[in-house]
Design brief:
CATH architecture of the domain at 2-135 and 161-186 and 246-261: 3-Layer(aba) Sandwich
Strand content: 15-25%
CATH class of the domain at 2-135 and 161-186 and 246-261: Alpha Beta
Helix content: 40-55%
CATH topology of the domain at 2-135 and 161-186 and 246-261: Rossmann fold
Largest sheet: 7 strands, parallel
Pfam family, one: NAD_binding_10
Shape: globular
Oligomer: single chain
Domain NAD(P)-binding: 7-174
Number of helices: 12
Number of strands: 11
Length: 274
């Protein structure tokens, strides 16, 4: 069996690549510039999901695909079907669950469209719907370095999931008989943003202050760099989960045989402080 792994250099893609190689699978690691991909036994191939001319060589002889969401996944989905691919594991998003009527152009709509594109092409799709990645901690890097993190909704809760766990679930799905399903994968605990910052401070051994900022001011600042529909999605989620524990699932343990890694584990084993 040959599996194409898109986004093979990313945190999740790297975990998928490593897990498949450990299982003895022929892995085709894809990226815009394959020369930067690690020389780990994978066959490296150029692939740009926004460039249909790159699809053919990447998909030739491939049985299954791990795929990230692209701006418009429909052309790649059709190419997958034409190449004989019948099973895809898609890195989707929990937002598809939390926004049942998503705003066009927002995070949920973007991922829902990708799920629809694959299934519409006749491809059996395992859509993984994780919540916040543990690696999203990087968005606070400047504040962490400065000793304070500004948050519009400090009590907004998520279930930060270690990207390695998402990769493990993806590998299990790729190795199993194809099943068309959507899987809500989470970390093992609900943590507010303030609680996450506190654990970062504990890991670094120095205080980090949480400063609550006016949501309107924070929204205006973010809107300078982020599309408005995405800003709306984020602020809607933060507002709706302010003081509300996030739901936790057992899908990681059920599908991989090991418990989901805690945020504290991720901080200890992965986080560099940057």
């Amino acid at each position: 069996m040959t599996v194409l792994v898109t986004g093979a250099r990313g945190a999740v893609g790297s975990a998928v690549r490593s897990g498949l190689l450990a299982a003895g699978v022929d892995v085709r690691a894809a990226g815009r510039d394959p020369s930067v991909l690690p020389d780990d036994g994978s066959a490296r191939v150029a692939l740009d999901l926004d460039d249909p001319s790159s699809y053919g060589p990447a998909l030739d002889g491939v049985d299954r695909v791990f795929v990230y969401v692209a701006e418009d996944l429909r052309p790649f989905a059709r190419a997958m079907a034409d190449a004989g691919v019948r099973h895809a594991v898609l890195l989707s998003s929990e937002s598809v669950l939390t926004e049942p009527e998503p705003e066009p152009g927002g995070i949920a709509a973007h991922h829902a469209d990708a799920e629809t594109a694959l299934r519409g092409a006749g491809i059996t799709t395992t859509a993984l719907r994780p919540g916040a990645f543990a690696g999203n901690t990087g968005q606070w890097s400047r504040g962490i370095a400065a000793g304070f993190v500004e948050l519009p909704f400090p009590r907004s809760a998520t279930t930060p999931i270690d990207e390695r766990d998402i990769g493990d679930v993806a590998v299990a799905a790729l190795l199993a008989d194809p099943v068309d399903e959507s899987v809500h994968v989470t970390g093992p605990e609900s943590l507010t943003m303030a609680e996450q910052v506190a654990q970062v401070a504990e890991r670094l051994g120095r205080p980090i202050e949480v400063r609550a900022v006016d949501p309107d001011v924070a929204r205006e600042q973010m809107a300078r760099f982020v599309p408005s529909a995405v800003v709306d999605s984020l602020f809607r989620y933060w507002r709706d989960t302010d003081g509300v524990p996030a739901p936790v699932t057992d899908e990681v343990a059920r599908r991989t045989g090991h418990p989901a890694r805690t945020y504290r584990q991720w901080l200890t084993e992965v986080f560099t402080g940057a």
